[in-house]
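Quick question, first post here. What does this chain look like in 3D?
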Amino acid sequence: MAQDKTHALSDVLDRLEESLVGKQILFGDVVGAIGPSSFSSLMLIFSLICTSPASAIPGVTSAVALVVCILTVQMIAGREAVWLPRFLMHRHISTVTLGKGIKWLRKPVRFVERFLKVRLTFVFHRPWLWLPLILILCLTIIMPFMEVIPASGSIASTIIALFAAGMLTRDGALVLIALALLLAVPITIWGLGHFG
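> Answer (accepted):
Ran it through. C-alpha cells below.
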C-alpha cells in the first residue's frame, strides 16, 4: 500500500498524459481524466500547469487561479464532487504545450516521490485542514495580479502543488511545509510594505 502511495503523483501525470488527444484539450476533459471526486489530484494538476511552460500563455495563471479557488471553496465546504462553471470547463489549452509541461515535470516529481510517505495525518482533519485551505484561497485571489511579475505566479502555484501533493499522498509533513510557505507569503508582503 505504501508503495502505491509513493507513485501517486506520477499516476496523476500518467492519467493526464493519456487524455492528451488532438491539438487542444478542454479543462473539462482534464477533470474527466482525473476524476470529479479527486479534489487533491485536480488541485495538483492545475497548479502544476501553472508551474510548467504552459504558464507562459497569457491568461493561464488567472484561469488556473480561478479553478483552484473554486476547488478550495468546495473542499472547505466538504463537497464530494467537483463543480466548475461551464465557461471554465470549455476553456482550451494546447496539448503540445501541456505535454511538454508534463515531460518537464516528470523528473522533479520522481525525485520528490522518493521522500513521501504517510505521516502526521492529523493535519488532514478539521479544523487543522482549514488554515492551509483558507491561505490557498487568499493566494488564488491575488494570483491573477502576479501575471505582470515574471515567475511569481509559478512560485505561488508551486506552493499550492506542494499542499496538493501532501494531500494526495497523505504526507502531513509536506502539508506543513506548504503551510509554512503559505504563511510566509503574507508576512513577506507585510514586511515589504512596512519597511518599504
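Residues 2-195 form one domain.
The longest strand covers residues 24-26.
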